[in-house]
Amino acid sequence: MPELYANIVLPLAQPAFTFAVEGDLAQTLREGMAVAVPLGKRKIYTGIVWRLHHEKPAYSTVKPVLHAIYPDPIISPVQMRMWEWIADYYMCRIGEVMRAAMPSGMKPSGFDDEEFSRDTFRPTTVRTIRLAQSIRDEEALHRCFEQLSRRAHKQYDTLLAIVDRLANEAGSGLGGEVTWNELKGDPAILKALHTKGLIEFGEREAGTAAGGYIPAGLPQLTDIQTEALASIHTLMTDHDAVLLHGVTGSGKTEIYIHLISEALGKGGDAVMLVPEIALTSQLISRLRRYFGDRVTAYHSRLTDRRRSEVYLDLLRHKTARLIVGTRSALLLPLNNPRVIIVDEEHDASYKQSDPAPRYNARDCAIIAARMYGCRVLLGSATPSIESYVNARRGKYGYVSVDRRYGDIEMPRIIVSDTLRAAKRGERLSHFNKALIDRIEAMLKNGEQTMLFQNRRGFAPYVECTECGRVLECPDCSVSLTYHKHDNKLHCHYCGYTMPMPPLCPSCRTACLTLQGFGTEKIEESLQELFPTARIDRLDRDTATSERAYNAIIERFESGQTDILVGTQMITKGFDFSRVGLVGILNADNMLNYPDFRASERAFQLITQVAGRAGRRNGGAEVILQTAQPQNPIIRYAARYDYTGMVNNQLHERAACNYPPYVRLIDIRMRHADPVLLREAAQALGTSLRTIFGNRVSGPMAPPVERIKRVHILSFLLKIENRLSFSKARTELQRCIDAIHARKERSTIFIYCDVDPQ
Known about the structure:
The protein is an alpha/beta fold. The protein contains 24 helices and 34 strands.
């Protein structure tokens, strides 16, 4: 029998390695299985069997696969195809996709067998209780209760508690199960019931679905929502993806719920992607009212153990589920998914930035749907221009809902000129008089206010008025942000901190001044202006954990908070009933960002945060403070003129050769030695221009050109839609490989961000 070999993918930025398959393993090993393999002199890694074959590699010594970790494959053929597509399109290694796709607990590593074994994930189990088969019918159960009521009152009460729990929560009648922890019963009494043959003890993995319970009653749809749902069904017959363009508060979630119910009813999974982890808690609570224990959450804030349990549960139990999560949820072992919903599809958070794979979950969802044979629904009040253009061209189906649920009017957006207010003496602290007056009115009426400022901290930078020095991070080319709560300067890139110095480090004068304002300063100013108001802040500094985040949201939702100040965290996904006013404090920061998408994102942010107001009652207002009231984007936003904004941006992008007219690849080079980096960049630039000509820009320094003492240079490659993007990526990779071929340049880290956001 010919020798058997396996190509093994490891969670490393390396190509697959070849190992020998020996002994009994040759009879049981299959593609997609997780195995332990030796690498180097001492290290043991978890790898995935990618291909089995009989082709002996060229090198003389081939190390053997040590053993299989799980008895069955943990990666399906569709997942393998998906990983390969991601690696190819986003120009990375399959090992890097594996690293992102699988929980850490499922890919242990160690320096010996014992260490590897300690690191191996073992699911926790919970003890369960079932009624004995003999008493599961009503008559037998009645007789049992009658007997216990005479002489065993505590056993009677415990058995009754078990039956009540089964009837109310398990959803599978008397044949279901409850856990010991749920019941909180006396172990001695439970043992007595077991001895009498009335209950049975069992065990299952913690976190696995027990009954697949679906409560009755889906939300009632309005006529407009019903029409939109029917249109989605029709368009999904001819299109891989449908774009649902619904204004904020139009009830897109209710439409999602009906689509999910249909998918689960067909026995397949439904996947709902959300851009931020913060949105999952509120959404999951809402979805569980309709789908009970079929709802499974998956995101990076879960413990690694919990993520591993979810992964294995989906793998082993083929009950139809609703998986709600961030981008990584798309890479789970799905069971015949029937629909993939991408909520807030425009959000840049769907694009992974670092580390590789730098994939966009929205775009990957469409590819995954093709592979699984299902459909995708993209939902947003402010769709990305690329998605909207795809819908306009007929590539995607398009459904519009242009009215709020219950015909509630959209909030009125009032543009407030900060320069004019300052000249008239109508500006106090960071607030125009128009905003202050409206906040006072909200407080008197018992309504809530949300204030949006897209900078956290107290002051974005500290400047010496004597010599002009701005205090910067010693390791990154960015200014330090002052945080008043700890009286320290923080770098928001590398985490460096230092105490606020009393004197300027350059001229030794006491002329350091705080410039600009962040959410922390806004909160303090509000406390001075409105001393009796209950004020809260939601940003990365206050939402340090899921518990802290939920506490802030719950206080606001229950009316315990009058004014909520926040960053982008407050702009999307929330449904608060008492918000009568939204204030946008500095729209200019969004407009002046050096990015071709800055105008589009400013419009999206303004529209999204405005949409948090007046979701139950009309008459809500948005005060938009800006020094550029005549800016076209500000005017489009004030009118909710999405089409006008899109046409304006398409005109500019066509003139400057930007998406959707071209595809972009951002090429980044990093190294601690700026001289070596510059020389290599010049060489790469020469080879790129030989192939791509004037489609290449660079090398150039990005806005932040040094992070953690590592210097960065970048190129931007533009490929017209009519050209082969696959061929362009191949040629680009050849140029990069040529740079790394020279020994002195092999340590330069080069990566490609395909379709950067």
